[in-house]
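ok trying again, last paste got cut off:
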Amino acid sequence: MEEKIRTLSMLFAKHFSAQLDTVRLRTGRITERIKIDHPEAAAVVPFLDERRILMVRQWRYAIDRETLEIPAGKADPGEALDVCAIRELQEETGYGSERLLHLFSYYPAIGYSNEVIRIYAASGLRSLPTEPDADEISRVEVVELSRAQDLILEGVIADGKTVIGISLFLAKQQRGEIPPDFFD
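nice, full thing came through this time. structure:
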């Protein structure tokens, strides 16, 4: 257990806050810890059919490059994560979904953030009369699931939620844990 002694500094941004604290470790040593309070988020592996998924190209400022990812985003205050997943799918790809299956929830940066991302798989996709958010998404791509797995192994897809979502779906499918009617 670590005991907070005092907060040294705080930062408040639109979607998160951060604080730098002085803490006492269980050994008695004094050190500093950063904690980011972040809203929960949802991500979705959207299946056009059993072999093809939708992915988005998106510029990521922090790493100064474009990435290939599954659709994802922060939950609005009070928004259920399954609703967030469906909303993000629509906003980022222009598609809706008939079926949503929870795959996994995880902490992407457990050393300094309380953010939780819940990952879903979606099927029964239908095109909606909306365009993807041009401020956020540069383009939507259809990717063969086997190719996406290769892109992960090659390091082209390096986004954590995308690697986890695709890999866990394939693992669960191999173990027979995906409902037989998921693609119907």
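cool. Helices lie at 81-93, 145-153, 160-174. The domain at 41-174 is CATH 3.90.79.10 (Nucleoside Triphosphate Pyrophosphohydrolase).
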